[in-house]
Amino acid sequence: MTESRAGFLKPGAGPDRAVATAVLLLGLLCLWQATIIPATPLYAQVGPKFVPYLVGAMVSAIGIGLVLAALRGGWSAQMEEVRDAPPTNWRALGLVGAGLVANLALIDWLGFVFAATVQFVLVAAGFGSRRPGRDLLIGLVVTLGAFLAFDKLLGVNIGGGILEGIL
Amino acid sequence: MDVWSGLALGFGNALSFTNLGWALLGCFLGTAIGVLPGIGPALTIALLLPITFKVSATGAFILFCGVFYGAMYGGSTTSILLNTPGESGSIITALEGSKMAKNGRAGPALFTAAIGSFVAGTIGTLGISFLGPIVVDLALNLGPAEYFSLMVLCFVTVSAVLGGSALRGLASLGLGLMLGLIGIDLQTGQPRLTFGVNELLDGTDVVLVAVALFAVGEALYLAWRASDEKQQVLAIGRLTMTKEDWKRSIGPWFRGAALGFPFGVMPAGGTEMPTMLSYYFERKLVRPEHRKEFGTTGAIEGVAGPEAANNAAAAGILVPMLTLGLPTSATAAIMLSAFQSYGIQPGPMLFTTQAELVWTLIASLYVANIMLVVLNLPLVGLWARILKIPQPQLYAGILVFATIGTYGISNSVVDLAILYTLGIIAMFMRRFDFPTAPVVIGMILGPMAEQAMRQALTISQGDWSAFVTRPVSVCILLLALVALVGPRVWGLVARRRAA
Questions:
Q1: How far apart are alpha carbons B158 and B475 in whole angstroms?
Q2: How far is A40 from chain B (nearest CA, A)?
Q3: Which of B79, B116, B269, B335 lies 20 to 30 Å (CA to CA) from residue B489?
Q4: Same domain, residue pair A101 and A161
Q5: What are the residues facing B191 on neighbouring strands?
């Protein structure tokens, strides 16, 4: 991007432009998916494609509107919550993200209780807890309690696993 | 069935041992999650949806409504003692309430909030009982065309009128409508927006979307901005009100309730606007000798009025939900999907085909209000202790329930992956000020609107003018148009006049 153009844009509008473009892409995605809906063999006054086209067009139009708003300086940089926010906490975000990924990777293999306990310890560490041993115990109690409440009381099938098989 | 025999039938059922138990459980749970920052009634009811497979519809809805009302009561405790509003309706309560608490008057603030919630909740429930059947009578004359127009109005008001910007609100709504489109088209059996993923053929689950928006997205956003700052829970002190406090609270309670209920009933929904208006009214109406307490030591009128408005609006939201099947808040949208999972068609027929359910539900709202005052005043110490759960364990725990709620749907890792993807989107939505409620409302109401539109066009044999030649339909559509462009035109006119 050239100097003059960067000067024309207000600072902090970059992220807004990215988000506005994402909304536009979402609308185009919907339009594309609408085109590949198979033609219906049944007679219908309004076919299955109409509303997807309508929604896709609406979201695309909104996306264009947001791109224009972002080019005029964006909206989020002036927001109090964004302006006064502390800087990105990569450690917290990384640990919470790691917790979610660990859960995703382990849940089919170890079962809900152990996978969610690993997630509990990582997420708690992400939010500033410095006692992983204690979190492990709390995590086990919470996940076991949640498992028993949902599996036995609500009758939700939480799937198999090492501990779940025994209980 | 008239109101009195309806209420008699309802109370007969609601006062049974089991239903009282459901109400108590709901109120207890609702207060707890209302107190806890980061969990709201929408998330809780979404997680409790599996109960619909095990429990009768009456029991489940009594539980849900207990959670819904309880969260309103609990939210005020958090905003007063922590200065962090538990949910959007208590932002205003936090203004004056936390100032009172800092000046050692947390007790009276909590007391007036609880009694005000009771007064407003009862007035609101009376409103549901007497207004509901009237709305139903009117609604029975509406055809699919009018319904479609009503839904369009609902879409516009929840996304474009409330919140920071119409564009961003409509973008959220669009995301919700897209999520609602995913899956097999019911009328023709064609797969739509599935991207070739088989798991998506059944459509997206409302639990998954609610959990992604309200739990995962929220946790990720807080982690993004996490700092080691510790929040302080203020002391409660003596939980009483002086005669003076009572005198100053009674007016705001009734004014707040009178303001809140109509706002809840209108498809504009939302509790932010009435609470804010109530705050401004009370500030104007307060006796001069107390005016300086506003914004300094905390004025009790500024807690009593908005808190009453909040509860009355929450009750009002149940009117369009029960009579028209129109949800105007995320919580109402999720309750509506519970009706669907029982195979009950929400709408004006509900009052006749499910009279027993509806009136039992209404009666149990009266019961819940009484329970909540009793639960909240003597037990306030317990709720204050819940506030002391440290943030790391609280959010780690919320994510455990997020996992179980999602993985429990079909034991599929694909669902978890979709959950986390939507959670990341929700995190960015929060950062860039896109509202989340329109997503849930669009997702639930979108398919219903499409169905109504197709029915209307089938009746009119494909003639699109049906929407604008039927007088009621065209009026509603014009109203939606005014709601959409009115504020902008008004802004232009005002700017031109100023220039």
A1: 18
A2: 6
A3: B269
A4: yes
A5: B184
